[in-house]
Specification:
single chain; about 60 residues; two-stranded antiparallel ribbon; about 65% helix; globular
Length: about 60
């Protein structure tokens, strides 16, 4: 059970990293709680607040349908 959630979180972080430029145009990724740091010359992006916000939007859409 725990391995499944770890895999889901890893896939979500990879998707957010890949879509980072597009999400920044929408204003996501710059919210308080979205972390960006540089380690070993590479930039990492952990969008905690944006993930929660997008999850709530998805939940509202599924409730309306």
């Amino acid at each position: 059970m725990g391995l499944r959630w770890l895999l889901v979180i890893l896939i979500a972080l990879l998707l957010f990293s890949g879509l980072q430029r597009w999400l920044l145009k929408l204003g996501l990724g710059r919210l308080p709680g979205d972390f960006r740091f540089r380690l070993f010359g590479r930039e990492f992006f952990i969008p905690i607040t944006s993930s929660v916000l997008l999850s709530l939007v998805a939940l509202l859409i599924t409730r309306l349908i």
